[in-house]
UniProtKB/TrEMBL annotation:
Amidohydrolase-related domain mapped to chain residues: 6-278
Cited InterPro entries: Amidohydro-rel, Metal_Hydrolase, Metallo-dep_Lactonases
Family to which this protein belongs: Belongs to the metallo-dependent hydrolases superfamily.
Family annotation (Pfam families): Amidohydro_2
Name of the protein described by the UniProt record: Amidohydrolase
Length: 280
């Protein structure tokens, strides 16, 4: 195995510091505890760098994540949060000027629970995304399959902003359905300013799952985006609901087995390093 290995998508949280209401349900009880950089180092064996992604719609969490990243050599970048429809330029300055602000690589909003399926097409949202573009950052798309058309519209409206699709838009792996997700994903992938993460798939499959359950979705993404526009992310510790860190990353290796060594290196770390501008 050669090339830099990057986990392009993971989280940390401290329930003792900040309320995480999404962890209150029975289905998330297994991960209802603190996850720290020490836990990350223990889990991410063989990984050279990671990207820490926001969890809550809370600017102060992002400020804390930047400080954590500045103190943890394994974390090479942070995807933070800000209110796209509020004062994004002011909030971006707040993040950039915070300790570790130079590690801010992107912004993400939790579009997935927005009741308006066309939320990403709103003028105020597009204005916020333009501020992210003007700051030289990327934008992570967290959407469900029914929100892919709006995501495509936003990507087309801002051709000079790099979008990163998280978790392949959470396809319906548990049911085994491919359409209309596959067609909508391919439409999005035709836009050159969007890349995607092979992440979160085991959670969408649910226990028990097999590598072959995930393969049609990974192959669809590889066909649509190609290795130079795909990156692997663990989605740890959320992934622990369906598999260990090692199982998730080993599964990714199995899904990439038919690629050439150069193509595998791109998905394992090259794409993430380039897109997020991760320092060596």
């Amino acid at each position: 195995m050669s090339g830099r290995r990057v986990d392009a998508h993971h989280h940390l949280w401290q329930t003792s510091v900040r309320r995480h209401a999404w962890l209150d349900g029975e289905d998330t009880a297994a991960i209802r505890r603190d996850y720290t950089p020490a836990d990350l180092r223990e889990a991410a064996v063989g990984i050279d760098a990671t990207v820490l992604v926001q969890v809550l719609p809370d600017l102060e969490e992002s400020v804390e994540f930047l400080a954590i990243a500045a103190a943890e050599p394994l974390i090479a970048g942070v995807v933070g949060w800000l209110d796209l429809t509020g004062s994004p330029a002011r909030d971006l300055e707040r993040l950039r000027s915070a300790p570790g602000g130079g590690l801010l690589k992107g912004i993400r909003h939790l579009v997935e629970p927005e009741p308006d399926p066309r939320w990403l097409e709103r003028e105020d949202v597009l204005a916020g995304l333009a501020a992210v573009r003007d700051a030289g950052l990327g934008y992570d798309l967290l959407v469900r399959p029914h929100q892919l058309p709006a995501a495509t519209a936003a990507v087309r409206a801002l051709p000079d902003l790099t979008f990163v699709l998280d978790h392949l838009a959470k396809p319906p792996i548990a049911s085994g359905e491919l359409e209309p997700w596959a067609t909508d994903l391919a439409t999005l992938a035709r836009e050159p300013n969007v890349v995607a993460k092979l992440s979160g798939l085991v959670t969408e499959a649910g226990r028990p799952w097999r590598v072959e359950d995930l393969r049609p979705y990974a192959e669809t993404a590889l066909t649509a985006f190609g290795p130079d526009r795909l990156m692997v992310g663990s989605d740890w510790p959320v992934c622990l609901l369906a598999g260990t860190y090692a199982e998730v990353m080993d599964t990714a290796e199995s899904l990439l087995a038919e690629l050439t060594p150069a193509e595998r290196d791109a998905v394992r770390g090259g794409t993430a390093s380039r897109v997020y501008g991760l320092a060596p």
